[in-house]
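Please, structure for the following, as tokens.
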Amino acid sequence: MKYNRFLPLLIPFIIFVLFEVFFFNAKAIYAVLVFSNLLIFFAITQFAKASDASKNWWNFLILPMLFTTGLAAYSVLFASNLFVQLLFIVNLVFLYFYLKIIYYYLVQTNLYKNLSLENISSFGNLLAFFFISSVIYGLQSFLNAPIWFLAVIAAATAALIIYQTVWANGAAARSAVIYVLIGSLILVELAWAMSFLPLNFNAAGLILTICYYMLIGMIKHHLLDNLEKRTIKLYLSLGIGSILIILLTARWM
């Protein structure tokens, strides 16, 4: 398809328009999410078809689909129209840069910049994890959803995001499974424990995201075979310090 180069701009714009439909008609959220993810699927598959190195192309779908779905669900928790529009713009910008990088990675390989995929995956997964974590605690606060159901969502989200991050950083499938199992178990246990704290959903989601950041940071250093005691202490001190600041300044329910 000779028009592949236009997809990184066209697909995010169409999804932005779909999100505006959802903004003015909340009942359309499920249809909008289905069509949005189908558009992402279409773009990635077109890039894969035009590529000679498209093995495991489905891995490229995980991040944009989680990011878009999580952001849409997160926007439902807010009454501020301005903030919701800002979230939609964030999704537009992220999808543009992500699809552009994937286009370069798979099709125009001579234009691909080293570590671009790893960098945008780290940034996007962090935001996606925050969106979905906050939604999980928002469901608990506003809908009194059962904890076991929220734990299932947290486990699936953690597994997919950790896998995508580990895969983007070049880990083999067998070793990726080990990181996914251990990392998901740790994060789900933390999410379960935090569900009993009377915290605002944003604060709870942010704390869990910081835990994810510490965990995934140490995993990436382990993949690079340079995980040292100094690195572990740095992540733990920054993470625990940030969590303490949030706990001391957050508004408790």
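The radius of gyration is 19 Å. The chain has nine helices and no strands.
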